[in-house]
Amino acid sequence: MTIEEAQKIIDKWINSIGVRYYNELTNTAILMEEVGELARIMARTYGEQSFKEGEKHDLADEMADIMFVLICLANQTGVNLTDALQKNLEKKTKRDKDRHQNNEKLKS
Questions:
Q1: pTM beyond 0.70
Q2: Cβ distance 64 to 6 under 8 Å?
Q3: pLDDT lower than 70: segments of the chain
Q4: pLDDT tens by residue, 5-36
Q5: What are the contacts of 72-78 at 24+ separation with CB within 8 A?
Q6: CA 7 to CA 30: how far, in whole Å?
Q7: Residue 49 CA to chain centroid, in angstroms?
Q8: Per-residue confidence (pLDDT) for residue 72, from 0 to 100
Q9: What pLDDT was estimated at residue 99?
């Protein structure tokens, strides 16, 4: 599915199953909570911490939770994420076209 399709599908889901969007501040707090859950999995999978017995560690599901809430916020605020991502990539390409190639820390 494309990002545009995801925005439409989630909007339809929210308005039928979810009843309505939470307000923007609530969704921002939920987004931070979901990022924290992803950070916990990353710290335990790739860092030095270990999982607690029975602790959930579905990396893909946590990433999808983040995308879901981010798409909700985009829908609420009128942001077309496809356009925003394209513009952001253009900005990064223009700004960083030589920067990373010349970064000694990134060379093997």
A1: yes
A2: no
A3: none
A4: 999 999 999 999 998 999 999 999 999 999 99
A5: 72/10, 72/14, 72/21, 72/22, 72/27, 73/24, 73/27, 73/28, 73/31, 74/7, 75/7, 75/10, 75/11, 75/14, 75/21, 76/21, 76/24, 76/27, 77/24
A6: 18
A7: 23
A8: 99
A9: 87
Q: Rounded to an integer, what distance in angstroms lies between the CA atom of residue 91 and that of residue 72?
A: 24
Q: What is the dihedral of CA 36, 19, 67, 45, to 10 degrees?
A: 40
Written as one letter, the residue type at 47 is G
- The hierarchical CATH code for the domain 3-81 is 1.10.287.1080
What ranges in the chain are assigned the alpha helix state H?
3-16, 24-45, 59-77, 81-96
44, two tokens: 């335990």
CA distance 9 to 7: 6
Q: How far apart are CA 7 and CA 73, in angstroms?
A: 10
Cα–Cα distance, 80 to 85 (Å, whole number): 9
